Amino acid sequence: MTKLRDLHLTEALVARVERQEPECPGVRGVAWIADEAFAIHAARLLAEAGEGPVWTFAYGSLIWKPAFEAAEAVPCVLHGWRRSFCIHLESWRGTPDQPGLMLALARGGSCRGMAYRLPDAGRMEAMEALLRREIGYEVDLASVRWLKVRGEAGVMRALVFYAAPLDPAIHVCLPVEEQARRIARAAGHMGSCAAYLHNTVRHLEELGIRDRYLWELQRLVAEEIAAL
User: Fold this and answer.
1) At 195, phi and psi to the nearest 5?
2) What Cα–Cα distance (Å) separates residue 214 from each residue in 4, 118, 123?
3) Residues 158, 149: contact at Cβ < 8 Å?
4) How many Å apart are CA 204 and CA 207, to the nearest integer?
5) Which residue among 49, 111, 136, 219 sits deepest, i.e. has the most Cβ atoms within 10 Å of its Cβ?
6) 185 φ, ψ to 5°?
7) What separation in angstroms does the CA of 61 have from each of 29, 49, 51, 104, 198?
8) pTM score, whole prediction
9) Are 48 and 146 in contact (CB under 8 A)?
């Protein structure tokens, strides 16, 4: 496995741009999910899951900051999808003046990650916690999909968040150099985009997962921060 010291985007570089900006609520101009609606959506998704184990696929921050204690975690591959910083952020890890980017899944290629099994006891609570962590707006529910992932034991159906984001107000397709420029500079009330990228790449490396796109992106972001 590659040693973590080989990362170009080091903790020292991230510290140069790490900060918390004032929160900018409601900048998208779309409806938030009402508090009481999370339980309704959680129940619907569990009904869609049917009998047997319920899995969710983690490819980004869910790996290093899960929403629940998983009953089981297994490496797996999602075919037909790839990681992409393609969600335009004006809050969370960006502002309207300095927008950031969030990781999602775009069509094409493949993506190695982890499948986490929801606990049998407290499954409803775990699903609701997962939704509250991942989804803030009603429009984003359209990018929550059940997809097939492949692990050592075979194929299983897993819940995936932000697969092909559908809201044209936030879905952007930028050259990797422009992605790096944004990520190197943007921060919001949840911290910086650079820290988000660093945490994701570091934890993937610890799992023995090297995503060539993210590896190139962290190198470019490191160069951007060094040049600021």
Assistant:
1) -65, -40
2) 14, 27, 32
3) yes
4) 5
5) 111
6) -115, -25
7) 25, 23, 28, 10, 10
8) 0.94
9) yes
88 within 8 A of 165, measured Cβ to Cβ? no
Tokens read off for 165: 């984001």
In angstroms, the CA 61 to CA 197 distance is 9
Q: What is the pLDDT along the chain (228 residues), one digit of tens a residue?
A: 445 668 999 999 999 999 999 987 656 677 889 999 999 999 999 999 999 999 999 999 999 898 899 999 999 999 999 999 999 999 999 999 999 999 999 999 999 999 999 999 999 999 999 999 999 889 899 999 999 999 998 999 999 999 997 788 889 999 999 999 999 999 999 999 999 999 999 999 999 999 999 999 999 999 999 999
- Who's near 40: CB < 8 A, 6+ residues apart? none
Choose, from 18, 134, 138, 223, the residue flagged as catalytic: 134
d(CA 184, CA 9): 10
Establish whether 36 is a catalytic residue.
Answer: no
